Amino acid sequence: MSISIGIPFYNAEAYLADAIRSVFAQTYQDWELILVDDGSTDSSLDIAHSVKDSRVRVISDGKNKRLGYRLNQITSEATFQVVARMDADDLISPNRFEKQVAALNAHPEIDLVTTGLCSITNDNRPFGVRCGSPGDPITGRKLLLGQCAIVHAAMLGRKSWFLRNPYTLSLERAEDYELWLRAFAKSDFKLLVLNEPLYYYREEENVTQKKLLKAYANQRQLYKQYGHPWLNHLGISFITAKSACKSLIVRFLFASDKMDLLLKRRNRTIDDSLQLKYFNHEITQILETKVPGLDRL
Question: Distance between terminal CA atoms of the chain?
Answer without folding.
Answer: 28
